[in-house]
Amino acid sequence: MRADAQDNRNRILAAAEEIFGRTPGASTEDVAKQAGVGIGTVFRHFPTKVELLEAVLTVRLERLRDRATELADEPDAGAAFYGFFSQVVAEASTKLAISEALVASGSAAGETARSAGAGMREAFGKLLSRAQQSNAVRADADFPEVYALLIGASRGATAAGLDPAVRDKMLDILYDGLRPAPTG
Amino acid sequence: MRADAQDNRNRILAAAEEIFGRTPGASTEDVAKQAGVGIGTVFRHFPTKVELLEAVLTVRLERLRDRATELADEPDAGAAFYGFFSQVVAEASTKLAISEALVASGSAAGETARSAGAGMREAFGKLLSRAQQSNAVRADADFPEVYALLIGASRGATAAGLDPAVRDKMLDILYDGLRPAPTG
Fold first, then answer.
1. Cβ–Cβ of A174/B174 closer than 8 Å?
2. Where do the HTH tetR-type domain residues begin and end (chains A, B) (predicted)?
3. Are A180 and A137 in contact, with CB atoms under 8 Å apart?
């Protein structure tokens, strides 16, 4: 792809992320306007709204995967795990809006988004293992239930348009459950 | 309503709860077949699919409210709170399927379902207060975050079609977070 085409593509994706994250039912025209490109340019890059939504979701999942991968080098494995968990939950409402817009378009996430999601889960699993090795997360918590808690907290925070103070108190309770029981 | 009409209504509601809980996209005809009544009888009681879905959701919320109200008399306030929490999460997938069928019909829950939901939340709040008074739930957990955890756990359990063993481990972690910190 030529540099200016790549530049347009990135601007369209950034605009789409912002607009669909706020208003799942927004139109492709709203995206074009926000990106400062013609509607024809949007359709050249993303022939359908489903393709555009899928690309936005993929970018978001890849960004989370990269963030988790980066955090795996943090010296404080507990802070890395809990920090990533909180970030996913805080960003959940816009991500969920995009997933729901996809479902409303009669389409589930396709292969690219699914593979980005798998990469994110794998990186999150590494953060969990490291946090357990450094005794910041209880050893008897396996990936499936911890991942279910991540999804659940994200949805719980979103469902009620939860205010940030309530979200933080919810996460405090959850994190107390995830920490190893005090010994002695 | 005459006794036989009431009887038909109840059979339609029971059939609809089972069918929509399993298959949100099921048709009113499937419900009539399962209830053993004619499609005309279904439409006489519930002129639209939205009205039928709404009635099913209301019955479900009222049942949970009644269960919570009953449990408020249990001598073991902790067992009552955690038992009710687990029951809501275990039943969540069918309830969510019904809510989602409503949303897919282009309709949110109407006044009757909303008021049944408010009754359920109020009864759950009482279970929470009693459990806190008997030191089975930490005193610093307020209703909004505990309710967010209930919604979140329900959605987390449903999202992945979570198997019951994983669901129970997820709830164990959550309940450890909800219990008061051990003293001494």
1. yes
2. 6-64
3. yes
CA angle, A118 as apex, A114 and A121 as ends, to 5°?
135
* B36 torsion bin: left (phi>0), alpha (psi -120 to 50), beta (else): left
Model pLDDT for residues B70-101, shown as the tens digit of each residue: 999 999 999 999 999 999 998 887 777 777 77
Return the domain boundaries, chain B: 1-47, 49-178
Tokens linked to A123: 């990186």
Query: What secondary structure does DSSP assign to chain B, as a single string?
Result: --HHHHHHHHHHHHHHHHHHHH-TT--HHHHHHHHTS-HHHHHHH-SSHHHHHHHHHHHHHHHHHHHHHHHTT-S-HHHHHHHHHHHHHHHHHHHHHHHHHHHHTT----HHHHHHHHHHHHHHHHHHHHHHHTTSS-TT--HHHHHHHHHHHHHHHHHTT--HHHHHHHHHHHHHHHSPPPP-
- Interchain proximity B141–A182, CB inside 8 Å: no
B100-140: pLDDT as tens digits: 776 666 666 778 888 888 999 999 999 999 999 999 999 99
Residue of A nearest to B165 (CA): A145
- By Cβ distance, the residue of A138, A151, A162 closest to B148 is A162
Pull the structure tokens for residue B94. 């069918």
pLDDT of A103 reads 67
Which of A149, A167, A182 lies at the smallest CB-CB distance from B156? A149
B49-178 shares the fold of B1-47: no
Point out the least confidently predicted range of A135-149, B50-64, B117-131.
B50-64
CA–CA separation, A121 and B140 (whole Å):
32
Angstrom distance (rounded) from CA A85 to CA A147: 10
Give the ipTM of the model, two decimals please: 0.84
User: Which CATH code fits A49-178?
Assistant: 1.10.357.10
**A142 and B181 in contact by Cβ < 8 A?**
no
CA of A41: how far to CAs of A2, A11, A45, A67, B104, in Å?
14, 11, 6, 30, 32
Q: CB distance A177–B181 less than 8 Å?
A: no
Chain B residues whose CB is inside 8 A of the A175 CB are: 177
Q: What spatial distance separates the first Cα and last Cα of chain B, rounded to whole Å?
A: 62
